[in-house]
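Z., the sequence and structure:
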Amino acid sequence: MPPQAEPSKLKSCSLWQYAVLRLRVHVIYVRSILSWSNWQAKCHHFGVATDRLRRLAAAIRRRRLELGLTQEHVAYESGTSVRNYARIEAGTVNVRSLTLYELATVLKTTPARLFDAADEPNRRRKA
């Protein structure tokens, strides 16, 4: 439910001013809802998908270190920015399928093997 306009401001205003004031209150309310939903969508501390994303990021990082490559080299060869690649390795962004394919090519593996490497800790726990 949207907040109400302050009564002290309503005593000395016309009907038109009252309508504008109410509209402003509603716009601020809607903006706050949208900013909250954007924050929820961007926040990477919720749910199972976050855990999987972090495990995939760890698998990418392990593979890069196995090959002795730098983040800058992998980012350049895969056609992404160093900043975006660092975010991918940190597990804070979703990886597009094309980007994942390019990263796998640079890391001399396949996306399927990266996913398998990300799932290995779960397989060990279940066994």
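DSSP finds seven helices and no strands in the chain. Residues 75 and 82 are 5 Å apart (CA to CA).

Let me know what you think.
H.
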